[in-house]
Structures are given as structure tokens and as C-alpha cells.
Amino acid sequence: MAVGDGTLPRGAWLAGTAVDAVCGRFLVFTWVVSFVVLTAQAVAWASDIPQFAAYPAPPVYRGRNAEPKLSTQSARTFRTRLQEAAKEKPNFAGRYILTTWGCGTSCVMGAVIDALSGQVTFLPASVCCWGAVDAGFSPVEARLWSRLIVLSGLLDEKGEMGSHYFVFDGSKFTKLRTIRMPDDFGASKRGGPH
After folding, report:
1. Same domain? 37 vs 128
2. Looking at the whole model, is its pTM more than 0.85?
3. Does 91 reside within a domain?
4. What are phi and psi of 51, to 5 degrees?
């Protein structure tokens, strides 16, 4: 048997040689580089998602709550809900009371009340239309220690379905970004709603 006479498969003469070792190292190097690049891309994508810790709130207010200021037509329309919520402890951005209520099937709206001043600021939009979601799904996510709030669904029944990230500055909400999602927010990939 000899290379070129048809008895050895093409490339067989390379097996066990220095060329074979170089090819093996090249394959390992290629795999490692691919892994590093894919990991870096995943980290970059995850770092684009606003995090609650990146928007710290001032110290938690522990004093007596002010009465909500019903100075707008919307505040007067929802007076009872706002007055009841104002009796609660702050649950958002250090000194604000976040309250939500239904506005139809799979729809919520709400406001934040400044426990110190009573100023009422309505959420930037109602949120609706999420599909069959997991039991732990909440269309409005916020933290006491953060100024970030996430509304998940359609905003005001239009636009993109997704998680909409806003930061609150004490008087208004500023949209940071939207991450598009299916209407079940991935529940179908996890085996459906629970």
C-alpha cells in the first residue's frame, strides 16, 4: 500500500504526524474562539437589559403618609383607589406607593403616590393583552429600592408586545427600551401556564 496508488485513503499518510497535531490544535482553537465569541455575545445581550440595581432609589421613607393630591381629573376619577393605596407603605423607588387596578380583561393601569408629598403620577401607559402566562407573571414589576419599573404586554393596547422598561425621576417616567416578547412571555417554551 502506498499513497497515490489508490490503496490508502487520501490524507491517511497524515495520521499521527505533526500535521495531524497541528490540525487538532487548530480545531480546538477554533472551538475555544467560537465559545468565547458566543459567550461574549450572550453577555452583551444580557447587559442591554436594564437591571433594577442600576437605578437605585433614595433611602426608604418611613414617616407618616401624606394624603394623595387629587389635582387632576384622572386623580379625581380614581380617588377611592388612590386614597386606599395611600394608606399602604412605600413599595417603589424609596418613598412611592405603586398601585394598580384592572381596566378590562388582561389589562391594568395604575399610579404612584409620593408618600411624603401626596403627589400622584400615573403610570406611563396601561398594559394589556398578555396571553396564557406562568402563575408568577406580573404585568407590572417594581422594587422598593429601585426607580426602574417594567410594564409587560402592550402599552395602551397598541405597539409592540414585550417588556417595556422605564425609569422614574420623581415626577415622570422615561422609557429606556422595549424587549419584544411573544404574548405568553415564553410560558409555552416552559411547558405552558401553571
Report:
1. no
2. no
3. yes
4. -110, 140
Same domain, 92 and 18: no
**130 band by pLDDT with thresholds 50, 70 and 90:** confident
Full residue range of the structural domain in which residue 63 is found: 52-190
Number of structural domains, the chain? 2
pLDDT for residue 44 is more than 50 = no
Residues 161 and 78 in one domain: yes
Answer yes or no: are the C-beta atoms of 140 and 165 closer than 8 Å: no
The type of residue at 71 is S
Which residues, 6+ apart, have CB-to-CB distance to 97 below 8 Å? 65, 85, 86, 88, 89, 90, 91, 112, 113, 115
Q: Which three cell numbers stand for residue 145?
A: 429600592
Residue 97 three-state SS? strand
Where are the alpha helices (H) located in 15-165, listed in sequence order? 18-47, 73-77, 79-85
Q: What is the spatial distance between Cα 71 and Cα 35, in angstroms, rounded to a whole number?
A: 57
Cα 168 from Cα 170, distance rounded (Å): 6
Asked if residue 43 and residue 118 are part of one domain, the reply reads no
DSSP state of 1: -
